[in-house]
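Dear support,

I submitted the protein below through the web form. The confirmation email said the job was done, but the results page showed an empty box. After a refresh the structure appeared. I'm attaching both so you can tell me whether what I see now is the final result or a partial one.
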Amino acid sequence: MAAPHLGAIPDTFDPQRRSEVVPDAARSGKHRTFDVQPSRNWLWPTTRPEQRKAFRAWQFIANQIIDDAGYSFQTISTFEQFLFWKKGEIYATDEQFAEAAGRCSTRKVRRQIAAYRNMGVISVGLGWRRPNGGNFKRTRTIRLAVPAVFDPRIGIEPSDFDADNSGPDGDCE
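What the results page shows now:
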């Protein structure tokens, strides 16, 4: 699935054709926005093997949706390391995501999380907590989700193919 916002890309590079290759809208300096898609929270199993399988299935679906939109995987690629497996929720801060995503800016993380939410692959809950009786702090809970309506091209699980890595004469050694 090619990213439709990039347009047709020629086989050879010609700096004089730059405006033809990249549409002017792509160079507007404005960040892309996505229409809000209704979503459903991903059901979270109780056993660890089922949880790992559920995360992989969600990741497979979410990656296809993000790729189809031609958007970045930078922040969502860090979700597994911050996932609380017991509840299937993520409580990491923008700073933690930014550090794990290659030390990008927290503004970029916020934009990407908002885009993922609008695409319907996560839901975001906001709240407050008061640690040790001190000042209130704002909290964010990210839950895995899928769009309520799927594009028919989106696969639900990876293809089950057998890769033969035995070499040309069938030997594994």
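Response: this is the final, complete result; the empty box was a page-load delay. The chain is about 30% helix and 15% strand.
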